[in-house]
TrEMBL record:
Lineage of the species this protein comes from: Eukaryota, Fungi, Dikarya, Ascomycota, Pezizomycotina
Swiss-Prot/TrEMBL keywords: Cytoplasm, Initiation factor, Protein biosynthesis, RNA-binding
Primary location group: cytoplasm
Biased composition (Low complexity): 116-128
Protein name: Eukaryotic translation initiation factor 3 subunit D
Organism: Talaromyces stipitatus (strain ATCC 10500 / CBS 375.48 / QM 6759 / NRRL 1006) (Penicillium stipitatum)
Biased composition (Basic and acidic residues): 141-150, 160-172
InterPro entries (UniProt xref): eIF3d
Assembly and oligomerization: Component of the eukaryotic translation initiation factor 3 (eIF-3) complex.
Record has Ribosomal protein as a keyword: no
Coiled coil: none
Length: 583
């Protein structure tokens, strides 16, 4: 085959000095126009906002897509010239569609509306992206001073929207931390909540006091408008601290245990991770014996109200003077304490017929000096074994527990019960914690009312349940007491009583008693691990510690304090009484 030369190729080219097909004057290819097209050609303009017609009616600027503004192709408008004209009639042809179509439109509020996704546009109901929610014709105040990107437009939720006007909570400590107190340990609640120790049910050592029978008529729901009023009864009741208890002193001398406490003090320690308000426990160590004590007038003796609520009651100073004086935390706690005392006295039948006497009388009552009759109360001294396998010596804990009444059974043994009362001050006031109106909802929505109280008073209910389990009580009676007038704290009515078994109630509120015993064992080990003097007299030397809950943080701190701490305050209280006697 003869080789091809460059001259042959050049001679085959057209006479014109051009490359490609010749430019037609009108039409080529049998009348079909040629549309010049190039993928590299772009328009010089960015956008045409003056365009009218169908696209403008559908949104104009909103339909302009910024992501593809530079990719408009030269010659794209000529594609309509290549539209195929269908000669046959296709009106008789149809496609069967088996998919279900729904004509129901989604909406919000009363008028509803269509949902659009994308960038926010005023005048439509939108969801998605950064627009939040907007309603048609929401008014001029909707987009004044709001940034849609932050989600504040219309019904949009912004981060922390409930907390924007809350004052800063700076609560005071339950005890004054003195400069001479030495900080030994600081433990946060996160560490305390991870502790666990299995403990046996305990054993009864001795029982003191007597019990009246519980009045079962309070279990019936009262008729509307005929609720019983809470009465104020004068009865002698005692709440003696651990080291001042004569029975505990006798048990300590007999070496029955090494750790001693009362149920109200121990329950506060076992339920510490649930607490919000500040509290303090005085710990006295004498040789190898440890006493969990409390100060006179300590906050542990008071019954808190809505301590765990998201919007807890405010002090008058925190609320800028707008808070009612009867709805402050201190006033509510004092009111709830009085309610609990009177409610337990009123719900028993003071009759010698059903009275249950224990082997020993009340250890704190002196008939020659007391003028008021005794309240229905039984003290059960119980021992718990907190020992571990690694312990060389057993670690026993003796607790003084209390029960309030006896439930007479038609068949079987009598049952011991603990009586407590929840109180309602004003379900519309600040600090109510979203509680329902007890007068209208307690009968129909009792479960919702109890669930709300579990949330707002988690620490208080946990303490009561722990005390009932420590006392081995068979039942708990929770009364619902409300103010006769929300603006007055002097008169109350009983709206109903609910009964629970302590173990079942603990399960409902997710109370783990093993965690409480682990906290107690950890504090006891911490006290025992502190360095003692090596003198021979150190065996009888007294040491005092104070365990304080931080008022604003979930932290407990252990301080080493001088042994005469708090004794000076007691002396100042007793001095005026002595002067009156001398006169």
């Amino acid at each position: 085959m003869a080789p091809i030369s460059i001259a042959d190729i050049v001679s085959a080219l057209p006479s014109e000095d051009e490359w490609g097909p010749p430019t037609p004057s009108e039409t080529t290819l049998d009348g079909v126009p040629y549309a010049p097209f190039s993928k590299g050609d772009k328009l010089g303009r960015m956008a045409d906002w003056t365009a009218e017609g169908k696209d403008r009616e559908r949104g104009g600027r909103q339909n302009y897509n910024r992501n593809f503004r530079d990719q408009q192709v030269y010659g794209a408008g000529a594609s309509s010239l290549f539209a195929v004209q269908v000669a046959e009639d296709e009106s008789s042809f149809s496609v069967v569609d088996n998919t279900r179509t729904s004509t129901k439109t989604r909406g919000f509020g009363r008028g509803g509306g269509t949902i659009f996704r994308g960038r926010g546009q005023r005048g439509t109901l939108q969801r998605g992206g950064r627009a939040g929610f907007q309603r048609v014709g929401a008014g001029r105040g909707q987009d004044r001073g709001y940034d849609q990107r932050s989600g504040r437009g219309g019904r949009g939720r912004r981060f922390g929207w409930k907390d924007y006007d809350k004052p800063q909570r700076n609560r005071d400590s339950s005890v004054n931390i003195r400069p001479d107190w030495a900080l030994l340990e600081e433990v946060d609640f996160n560490r305390l909540s991870k502790l666990h120790l299995e403990s046996p049910d305990g054993e009864d050592l001795d029982n003191y006091g007597f019990l009246y029978a519980y009045d079962r008529s309070y279990d019936k729901p009262p008729v509307k408008g005929s609720e019983r009023k809470l009465q104020s009864l004068d009865r002698a009741a005692y709440n003696v601290t651990t080291s001042s208890d004569p029975i505990i002193q006798e048990l300590a001398e007999k070496n029955e245990a090494t750790v001693f406490a009362t149920s109200d003090i121990l329950s506060m320690l076992m339920c510490a991770p649930r607490s919000v308000y500040s509290w303090d426990i005085v710990i006295v160590k004498q040789g190898n014996r440890i006493y969990f004590d409390k100060r006179d007038g300590a906050s542990i003796d008071l019954v808190t109200v809505n301590e765990n609520a998201a919007d807890a009651p405010l002090e008058a100073s925190e609320a800028g003077g707008k808070q009612d004086s009867i709805n402050t935390p201190g006033a509510l706690a004092l009111e709830a304490t009085v309610i609990n005392h009177n409610f337990a006295l009123q719900t028993v039948i003071e009759s010698d017929k059903d009275k249950v006497e224990f082997p020993h009388p009340n250890p704190f009552y002196n008939a020659s000096e007391e003028t008021e009759p005794l309240a229905s109360k039984a003290y059960k001294y119980r021992r718990f074994d907190l020992s571990l396998e690694k312990d060389e010596e057993p670690l026993n804990l003796i607790v003084r527990t209390e029960v309030d009444a006896v439930l007479k059974a038609t068949t079987g043994a009598d049952q011991h019960i603990v009586i407590k009362a929840l109180n309602e001050f004003d379900h519309k006031a600040q600090g109510a914690g979203g509680a329902l109106d007890w007068r209208t909802k307690l009968a129909s929505q009792r479960g919702a009312v109890v669930a709300t109280e579990m949330k707002n008073n988690s620490c208080k209910l946990a303490r009561w349940t722990t005390q009932a389990i420590l006392a081995q009580a068979d039942h708990m009676k929770l009364g619902f007491v409300s103010r006769s007038n929300p603006r007055s704290a002097s008169s109350h009515v009983i709206l109903g009583v609910v009964g629970y078994k302590p173990r079942d109630f603990a399960t409902q509120m997710n109370l783990n008693l093993g965690n409480g015993w682990g906290i107690v064992r950890t504090i006891v080990d911490l006290i025992n691990s502190l360095d003692d003097d090596e003198d021979e007299e150190s065996e009888e030397k007294l040491k005092k510690y104070v365990l304080v809950k931080d008022p604003n943080k979930p932290v407990v701190r252990l301080y080493n304090v001088p042994y005469n701490t708090f004794e000076e305050e007691e002396a100042l209280v007793e001095e005026p009484e002595e002067k009156v006697e001398e006169e």
